[in-house]
Write a structure and sequence with these properties.
Elements: H1 4-18, E1 24-30, E2 33-42, E3 53-59, E4 70-73, H2 92-95, H3 106-118, H4 128-136, H5 138-156, H6 197-207, H7 219-226, H8 228-235, H9 239-258, H10 267-285, H11 296-307, H12 325-338
Antiparallel strand pairs: 1-2, 2-3, 3-4
Helix pairs in contact: 4-5, 7-8
Keywords: ATP-binding, Nucleotide-binding, Ubl conjugation pathway
Family: Belongs to the ubiquitin-conjugating enzyme family.
Pfam families: UQ_con
Length: 345
């Protein structure tokens, strides 16, 4: 057995489908729940909202039609009479149940919302920014309305919004409840530890930047040098890590100042380099001895002499062998070193 509200909603829906108003569509969100509806409202023709397609959520209760339904926009336009956060339209008979009449159907409610888009009521403005723009700069308000129309069409087609100007002017989807603030974490008070005056004076003397004398020894640093654990706690880093960081910084400093050097050669590479250098010097300073050949002109002259028949043989004087100039220099150098006096040296 259906309730009275269920039967009244079904009756209104049948009347709505028999004579549907222009630019308005409505249907239940689920087949088994007739109390929640989704509607699409188009902007009226020859108005700044023409072409817009806005989704509206309607929820009835068990007291319908004695009380009005709850209505809110899913696609919230920039309008003086529409809440920019909740999407709830500002209509008198929806806000005040005493002004609601049982003769009103949900089709009449949707028609009222469609008419409200094109005919805002500034006296009941719930969006002060939109109302101020409508009064002070109608051109800007018209441009904003056209942007909302374009954004609603893109949203209906499943496309992404190209412009981010409408982030604060139009919203899509069911309005979310503001998150509940989390309780601040409990802060446990720090434990106060007793300290002797000697330790306090030693620590404070080391922390203080002023000195009574330039040669005054810092007792804190002296104590830290003897206690690696306290030194690590004080500096926040261990001694090996400090040495590693210092070494790394020195290497980087050397690279910046002197440039990057190649790796040092090994002993085998040094030996090969020395041998190659000696071989090169040997080729320069000790050339190989090769017999000199007679020039072509000389050979030709000898050949002509051999062809002459019955030529008298002329005895040639003995030619002294010409020594190699390099051998002569070597002999002179050896003789000079032999005659050196060791005492004078």
């Amino acid at each position: 057995m259906y309730s009275r509200a269920h039967l009244l909603i079904k009756r209104d829906f049948e009347r709505f489908t028999q004579d549907p108003p222009w630019g308005i569509e409505a249907q239940p969100l689920a087949d088994d729940n007739i109390f929640e509806w989704s509607a699409k409202i188009q902007g009226m023709r020859e108005t700044i909202w023409e072409g817009g397609l806005f989704q509206v959520y309607i929820k009835f209760n068990e007291h319908y039609n004695s009380t009005p339904p709850e209505v809110c926009f899913h696609t919230i336009p920039f309008h003086p009479n529409i809440d920019s956060i909740t999407g709830r339209p500002c209509i008198n008979f929806l806000d005040d149940p005493t002004l609601w009449k049982e003769t009103y159907s949900f089709g009449f409610v949707l028609l009222s919302i469609q008419n409200l888009l094109s005919n805002p009521v500034l006296d009941d403005a719930i969006n002060p920014d939109a109302a101020a723009m409508l009064v002070n700069s109608y051109h800007s308000y018209k441009q904003m309305a056209q942007d909302c129309v374009l954004a609603s069409r893109r949203f209906e087609a499943g496309l992404s919004l190209e412009s981010t100007v409408l982030d604060d002017k139009i919203r899509f989807g069911v309005p979310e409840k503001p998150p509940t603030p989390e309780a601040p974490p409990k802060v446990t008070p720090k434990k106060i530890k007793k300290m002797s005056f000697e330790d306090y004076h030693k620590g404070w003397s080391g922390i203080a930047t002023s000195k009574t004398h330039p040669d005054t020894v810092n007792p804190l640093l002296e104590m830290l040098q003897d206690d690696p654990v306290m030194e690590e706690v004080h500096l926040g880093i261990s001694r090996p890590e400090i040495e590693q960081q210092v070494k790394k910084q020195l290497q980087e400093h050397s690279k910046l100042i002197y440039g990057k050097f190649k790796n040092a050669p090994t002993s085998e590479e040094e030996l090969d380099a020395k041998i190659a250098k000696l071989q090169h010097m040997r080729k320069i300073y000790l050339p190989s001895k090769t017999p000199t050949t007679a020039p072509p002109s000389r050979i030709g002259a000898i050949s002509q002499q051999d062809t002459i028949l019955n030529a008298p043989t002329v005895a040639q004087p003995a030619v002294k062998n010409i020594e190699d100039p390099w051998d002569q220099d070597v002999d002179e150098l050896v003789a000079w070193t032999t005659n050196l006096d060791e005492d004078n040296l």
